[in-house]
Amino acid sequence: MNTALHRSSSARGFGKDKRGVAAIEFAIIAPVMLALLFGILCYGMYFGTVHGVQQLAAEAARAAISGMNNQERTTLARATVTNGARSYPFLAVDKLAVSSIETDPATGTFTILLTYDASGLPIFDLPFVPLPPRTIAHAAAIQRGGF
Known about the structure:
Layout: H1 2-13, H2 21-64, H3 70-84, E1 96-104, E2 109-117, E3 135-143
Antiparallel strand pairs: 1-2, 2-3
Helix pairs in contact: 2-3
């Protein structure tokens, strides 16, 4: 009879017992919060990489202004990208590609195109996040000038 009385009193007290509620709430909320945290960190790293590629393209175009011909401009742009990539923490020099195009010979516009293979970034390891493109490309145009 004691066990029957004990069972019925514990069943009545089950709804009123608040021990362990914080642990259950944490178990429900923690995965969502961790997913948000890792998503923010990974997207931040991706945006930092995009910004670095954009800045390097602009720096390469500025350096290419001083070249006398298209080949020299391209060489100056490549050297600027190689040397400047070390100052951006999320960029690897071996994944950068520099190309140049004379877009409009009549006006003398010269374009530097910088592409980066971002497939090694941790954002592409996240399982349930909408993913950005794996190749980042930015172009910067300069006006061949003064003559």
